[in-house]
Amino acid sequence: DYLTKPFHPDELALLIQALLRRAHGLANQSQLEAAGLRLDEQRQCVCLNGADVDLTAAEFRLLRYFMLHPGQVLSKGHLAEHLYDGETERDSNVIEVHVHHLRRKLGNQLIRTVRGIGYGIDQPAP
């Protein structure tokens, strides 16, 4: 396993957690699920209703971050900081572009916009 630069410290922590789970025989817990969507951190792939969806590395990291923070509204600045670790301008529309691409690939209903604040995905029903 490895991380490519740039990476965020949260990604390193997630990778370490995945390695520890694997070492303890709990590798099957490296999947996140919400609304018919399954994100497999080990295989670095996403399935929507059983079908694989091709995502770029940035789209995968952004989707994973959304899925790790369900029910929260995340600002564009916060998302850009996580995704690029300060390498992009905060006023840039790069996050909007990635969200647009994710919506095109996964459907418009998954990621919601909170006008003037940011983006988020809803918490799955219990």
TrEMBL record:
A GO cellular component entry from the record: protein-DNA complex
Family matches, as SMART domains: Trans_reg_C
Every Response regulatory domain range: 1-20
Modified residues (4-aspartylphosphate): 1
Protein origin, superkingdom: Bacteria
DNA-binding region boundaries: 29-123
GO molecular function: phosphorelay response regulator activity; transcription cis-regulatory region binding
Record-annotated OmpR/PhoB-type domain positions: 29-123
Keywords linked to the UniProt accession: DNA-binding, Phosphoprotein, Transcription, Transcription regulation, Two-component regulatory system
Gene Ontology annotations of biological process type: regulation of DNA-templated transcription
Coiled-coil segments: none
InterPro entries attached to this UniProt entry: CheY-like_superfamily, OmpR/PhoB-type_DNA-bd, Sig_transdc_resp-reg_C-effctor, Sig_transdc_resp-reg_receiver, WalR-like, WH-like_DNA-bd_sf
Protein's UniProt keywords contain Transcription: yes
UniProt protein name: DNA-binding response regulator
